[in-house]
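Look at one such:
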Amino acid sequence: MPRPTSLLHTAPLLEVRKFTYRELLDMERAGIIEEDQHVELLGGQLVVMTVNPPHAAVVSQLNRRFHRVFAERVQVITQSPLRLSDNLEDDTLPQPDVMLVADPEKVYADHPRPTDVYVLVEVSDSTLSKDRLVKLPLYAAHGIPELWIVNLVDKQIEVYTEPHGHDYLTRTTRLLTERFAPQRFPDDVQQWLPEAILDLLND
């Protein structure tokens, strides 16, 4: 009696379809991806971003506070793509939650580049592993000078500075409601998130 053949050897291999920035633009123009749908491209894979209420509240509070503190000194951009290169065949287009970028008067025909960014913020809940293991090395490799991971799981803000290779040389952990200043603006010591955020996370 013949021995059964392992499915491992007979099942066809699944090929994962990867996309480029050019194809992402084509899908947006064709209406396959809706204009208000938050989608980022990571290593050729399309990732649909879902925003839970605590996440949305934190992004809103940071946006409000950054606008108030930095006024005309920087441009505050929320949940919009960061273009990593000029290559349309690039397979990565992250969409950070908040960016502080240079030149508040500049109107971007495309998207900001890493050299425009002063501070980049990712608000992390279910995305914590992805933000630490995938996006952090990506931002470091492209020279983003300061990254905040607002860690809603552990109720802290992880501040990364001094990008080197695919990592950051310095990591500082702050409480969610702690007062501190971005590296670029050392005199602007602020409490970036209100105490009410803690109540929201405890509900």
Observations:
- Residues 50-202 form a domain with the tt1808, chain A fold (CATH 3.90.1570.10).
- Strands lie at 39-42, 45-48, 75-78, 98-101, 117-124, 146-151, 156-164, 167-175, 179-180, 190-191.
- The first strand starts at residue 39 and ends at 42.
- The chain has one domain: 50-202.
